[in-house]
Design brief:
There is one protein chain. By secondary structure, the protein is an alpha+beta fold. The chain has three domains: 293 residues, Beta Barrel (Thrombin, subunit H); 95 residues, PDZ domain (Pdz3 Domain), CATH 2.30.42; 87 residues, Pdz3 Domain (Roll), CATH 2.30.42.10. The strands form five sheets. Strands 16, 17, 18, 19, 20, 21, 23, 24, 25, 26, 27 and 28 form a twelve-stranded antiparallel sheet that branches. Strands 1-4-5-8-7-6 form a six-stranded antiparallel barrel. A hairpin with a 5-residue loop joins strand 27 and strand 28. The two termini are 45 Å apart. The relative contact order is 0.09.
Length: 520
């Protein structure tokens, strides 16, 4: 089973060959005076092209024995093609005509496998309770039979079988997985060590944009297909909002299709640098692979313990440079991660961390983006103290947090965290000092600050704040009376900077809100 259905056009071999030759010709023309080995005629250029061609062949020969084809079975009464398609995150990006082609293709595949079993002794055999109806790829990690793949390839499987390049087939069991990163490890049963060839691992941190990228897998049941392209970008995190994945993808234009999922993305040395996972859109040349360093960080813990315990702080975060409003206000630091919200029942909720804090390091290692922070926290020890370097207003602090274990939340609808309209009117808040009367009326825990009693329709605060919430800080200053708020409001340019407000809701959660006049 492949979680992400997609298709891409196949590049003509002749076009690729001519492109390589032309590229080599330009390369030598530009670098001519600096290289004594400059080719002087077309035959020399062709020789270089043939050497590059040989390099691709050697990669295919080296890597293919380490790649496996994974077939998964699911309960018959729980699976059908249309249901599968309805859960594909990129299906809605396909043109209607292409969508119908995919639906027909997968429905036809399902119908073929649902045909009645031939009769025996005049009676039809009982239809099995499950069937093999999905296929993906994987890579051998060790001679002990551990195979790395995507979680979505084996999700919900009742049985798994794995076929090697030699044609031998083995049963496999799920060793463990991390659904957040879409990484899983399966273990081959009774596979002789002598026939297993572990893949050679590269260093995804050292991958350079522009270098060759080669994908090997079983697209559309065409096993051990080899395609190539380049590394288009690194650190892609905003890929899809439909799945709450831990994103840090390598982007590539190497052709990836259904069945490639879980297979390796390798460099020109034949080292795995990524796990092919998904693509964006149709015929776009935009594919994504999980960096091998990240995948192995998870796989190694799974192999050792049988599970992956993901550390969680319980905060909402945003890269400082992505928030132009707060970035224009903050002068003490230029890079870091904004704490936009804090869950009351979380590790951060029990710490001294506050909304609007800017995290600049985790465990002594600098972080400049939300994904870098996730990467640093992901595998930290559960319950063990972790030191965060934080900038609060202009003060630098060290805050101790004890991460908790991430638990998969119930599935809920995803909604945009944006106001329904863009207000430009005054703030529009009616505030009172928080007291027991207000706390009882709104059913919120009492604490020092200003309680919101009313919000004017169409004002800056409308759609961002809610009556009953308590404001504790404005522009990095504690507010304890309406006069405190009025003083800060009077000195604030709402068009240029705005009000940076920390609010507490009825459940004790804290979040950051910026009220600013927006002329869009």
């Amino acid at each position: 089973m492949v979680m992400y259905w997609f298709t891409m056009s196949r590049k003509p071999l002749l076009t690729h060959t001519l492109t390589i030759i032309c590229t080599l010709a330009v390369h030598f023309h530009v670098l001519g005076d600096n290289h004594s080995s400059q080719p002087e005629d077309a035959s020399d250029i062709l020789n270089w092209a043939q050497r590059l061609n040989t390099a691709f062949i050697q990669v295919a020969d080296k890597v293919s024995p380490s790649v496996v084809v994974i077939e998964v079975a699911h309960p018959v009464d729980e699976r059908n093609a249309l249901m599968d398609l309805q859960h594909e995150p990129f299906l809605d990006q396909l043109p209607e005509e292409e969508r119908r082609k995919f639906e027909k293709y997968f429905n036809d595949q399902k119908k073929q496998k649902e045909e009645q079993v031939p009769e025996k002794n005049g009676q039809s055999e009982q239809v099995p309770k499950d069937r093999y109806d999905g296929k993906g790829s994987g890579m051998i990690l060790s001679k002990k039979g551990f195979v790395l793949t995507n979680y979505h390839v084996i999700e919900g499987a009742s049985r798994i079988r794995v076929r090697l390049q030699s044609g031998r087939v083995f049963r496999a069991l799920v060793k463990g997985y991390d659904s957040q990163s879409d990484v899983a490890v399966i273990e081959l049963v009774d596979a002789p060590e002598a026939i297993l060839r572990p893949i050679e691992l590269g260093d995804s941190d050292s991958v350079k944009v522009g270098e060759f990228a080669i994908a090997i897998g079983a697209p559309f049941e065409l096993e051990y297909s080899v395609t190539y392209g380049h590394v288009s970008a690194k650190g892609r995190s905003s890929v899809t909002r439909q799945y709450n994945l831990d994103h840090d993808f390598i982007q590539t234009d190497a052709d990836i299709n259904p069945g490639n999922s879980g297979g390796p993305l390798v460099n020109i040395q034949g080292e795995a640098v990524g796990v092919n996972t998904m693509i964006r859109g149709l015929n776009t040349g935009i594919g994504f692979a999980i960096p091998i360093n990240m995948a192995m960080e998870i796989a190694e813990q799974v192999i050792e313990t049988g599970t992956f315990r993901r550390a969680l702080l319980g905060i909402g975060i945003e890269t400082l440079t992505d928030n132009y409003e707060l970035n224009n206000i903050v002068s003490a630091v230029s890079k870091g991660v904004i704490v936009s919200s804090i869950n009351a029942d979380s590790a951060a909720g029990e710490s001294n961390l506050k909304p609007a804090d800017i995290i600049i390091a985790v465990g002594g290692k600098p972080v400049a983006s939300a994904q870098q922070l996730k990467n640093q926290v992901r595998s930290k020890s559960i319950g063990k103290a972790l030191i965060l370097d934080v900038v609060r207003n202009k003060e630098r602090l060290q805050i101790e947090v004890k991460p908790r274990e991430w638990k998969r939340p119930p599935v809920t609808a995803i909604t945009a965290n944006e106001p329904r309209e863009t207000p430009t009117r005054p703030v529009g808040l009616k505030l009172r000092k928080a007291d027991e009367t207000g706390a009882k009326q709104f059913g919120v825990p009492l604490q020092e600050g200003l309680m919101i009693w009313e919000i004017e329709k169409g004002s800056l605060a409308d759609n961002w704040l809610t009556p009953g919430e308590i404001i504790t800080d404005v522009n990095f200053q504690a507010v304890r009376s309406p006069f405190d708020f009025a003083r800060i409001y009077r000195d604030t340019d709402l068009k240029r900077k705005g009000l940076v407000i920390v609010v507490h809701d009825a459940r004790g959660n804290k979040r950051l809100v910026i009220l600013k006049e927006r002329n869009l």
